[in-house]
Design brief:
The protein contains 9 helices and 8 strands. By secondary structure, the chain is of the alpha/beta class.
Length: about 260
């Protein structure tokens, strides 16, 4: 009988702690598919910091290191420099990467550290109860913005890929989503390219993944997917913001919001 689908060997066969409808599981799966297809499970080291991914070491069948909140790129830098032949990736949320970890993220890219950063953007602090994150959209209701985020009071959301694309050390800055089959396939291609960049010593690669948080958004999983499509993608357009292999901007959704 033909095998249509099987669990990636790099993904441990356990139940996760993620909420129903959370899209972290999709990203875990395609990341592990890339690791399997490249045959690098035994040569891969992942870094997971505080956030919804805090227990990701229970799910990936490769070496994993727990980092303090926001410090995953700094830890990854040390790991990669002492193990230059290993594949090193971080798996971070928006509250982690774009708030307390902004300096680590930016300066890792400035230095062109040869690592892969998987950045989960769900526009909210998920693990700690739904507070406003740096990526929270204008008008979005959170636990700390009950009347909606006000740009006058809280500033505007951070567009991470656009920012990092301006840095010379960045090899790849691409934003993808996991709301549909075509977008999931594109997300996997982006993660594969990021790991290939590391193999080829191209420098810093970041793949930003637009994801859902049904629990803290107060929506059903289907409603959350629709919000991602209707509100997040227009503000955070999908596309390649920098690719040293192509040296062109390629936006797949049209415009920059």
């Amino acid at each position: 009988m033909a095998v249509v689908f099987e669990r990636p060997k790099s993904l441990i066969d356990v139940s996760t702690h993620y909420c129903p409808g959370c899209t972290h599981g999709i990203v875990h799966r395609i990341l592990c598919e890339v690791i399997d297809e490249m045959g690098i499970e035994g040569d891969t080291i992942g870094i997971c910091p505080v956030g919804c991914s805090v227990m990701a070491y229970d799910y990936f069948n490769c070496d994993m290191i727990e980092a303090p909140h926001g410090r995953a790129p700094a830890v990854a830098t040390g790991v990669k420099r002492t193990n230059p032949d290993k594949y090193v990736f971080t798996y971070q949320g928006d509250g982690d990467l774009a708030a307390i970890g902004t300096a680590e993220t930016v300066h890792s890219a400035v230095r062109g550290e040869n690592i892969v950063v998987i950045f989960i953007n769900n526009t909210i602090y998920g693990m700690t109860g739904g507070q406003m994150a740096p990526t929270t959209l204008p008008g979005q209701v959170t636990q700390t913005t009950p009347f909606g985020r006000s740009p006058e009071l809280a500033g505007y959301p951070v567009r991470v890929c656009e920012m990092l694309a301006t840095l010379s050390g960045t090899a790849l800055a691409q934003r993808v989503a996991v709301d549909s089959v075509p977008h999931i396939r594109e997300a996997k291609k982006a993660i594969r390219k990021a790991f290939e960049n590391q193999r080829d010593k191209k420098g810093f690669s970041i793949v930003e993944v637009l994801s859902t948080c049904p629990t803290n958004w107060g929506l059903t999983p289907l409603e959350a997917i629709k919000r991602l499509q209707d509100e997040m993608i227009p503000y955070y357009p999908l596309g390649v913001y920098k690719d040293v292999q192509e040296s062109v901007f390629s936006n797949t959704e049209g415009g920059q919001g």
